[in-house]
């Protein structure tokens, strides 16, 4: 029997389709669900392919120490600009996403898949100044697909396992016991960690749930969160019904701030997150 939080984590990941591969899915196919629920559609949403933003590649080399932390206050960048193309198809800066007060600061928080980069991609990564990489994959996934050697950022492993068999409504049921999710937001609460890049295998599912909770906490509307999530659809597909269930669960738990407080995130950490990731 899986621990409650691992059963809780699995369900939206199943609905969102984030798996480490066919073998892992086959190995867990016999796990019985804890309760019967109507499952959201697993047919990927199809949306118009957004116009790709030009790469912000630089000429700072492919290695060396991460850039010194900066105060991200610029909102002049293109909203949700894709980066690290063509090496990585679904990596983007969350900068420019509109919030109740201002927008997400440009160059502060990035989301995507693992950093498997060419020499040119390594140069662009250096120019982005990423200081911390939060890896949501399991140890087996990390060993099977390691990041490029040029990644000089500190890596924070925060594995969200991907067992199977439940419905998405259970995902956040026991979130206050999930050390990995807490670890992610403790990292967001560290002023020295920025800029931050967080990822799972495809930059869509586990990454999408963390991104949704992050944007809600910063003051984005549900529709804005959904719109940002759907930017992944042309690259790797998307499962909006499942994410909608997660958003409803956050609301049922008293909202994003209360969800994080129950998780053990402090008011000071939330203040750091908002100061570093919001440009008014």
Describe the structure.
With 280 residues, the chain is an alpha/beta fold. It has one domain (4-38, 60-279): Protein tyrosine phosphatase superfamily (Protein-Tyrosine Phosphatase, Chain A, Alpha-Beta Complex). Helix content is 36%, strand content 8%. The protein is built from eleven helices and seven strands. The protein has a five-stranded mixed sheet, covered by helices on one side. Strands 2-7 form a two-stranded antiparallel sheet. Helix 6 (206-218) packs antiparallel against helix 7 (222-229) and helix 6 (206-218) packs across helix 9 (240-252). The N and C termini lie far apart (47 Å). The model is unreliable at 1-44, 46-70 and 164-177 (pLDDT under 50).
Task: Outline the secondary-structure elements.
Blueprint: H1 4-16, H2 22-27, E1 92-93, E2 103-104, E3 109-112, H3 119-128, E4 132-135, H4 139-144, E5 154-157, H5 179-188, E6 196-199, H6 206-218, H7 222-229, H8 233-236, H9 240-252, H10 256-263, H11 267-277, E7 278-279
A few lines on this structure:
Helices cover about 35% and strands about 10% of the residues. With about 280 residues, it is an alpha/beta fold.
Across the major sheet, the strand order is: 1-3-6-4-5
- Whole-number tally of structural domains: 1
Estimate the global geometry from the Cα principal axes. Answer: globular
What is the C-level CATH assignment? Alpha Beta
Question: From N to C, what is the helix and strand string?
Answer: HHEEEHEHEHEHHHHHHE
| Count of DSSP-assigned helices | 11
| Largest sheet report | 5 strands, mixed
Strands, count = 7
What name goes with the CATH superfamily? Protein tyrosine phosphatase superfamily
The overall average pLDDT, rounded, is 76
Q: If classified by CATH, what would the architecture be?
A: Alpha-Beta Complex
Radius of gyration: 18 Å
Structural class by SSE content: alpha/beta
Work out the strand percent.
5-15%
Fraction in helix:
25-40%
Distance between the termini: 47 Å
Q: Enumerate the spans where pLDDT stays under 50 for 5 or more consecutive residues.
A: 1-44, 46-70, 164-177
Q: Assign the CATH topology.
A: Protein-Tyrosine Phosphatase, Chain A
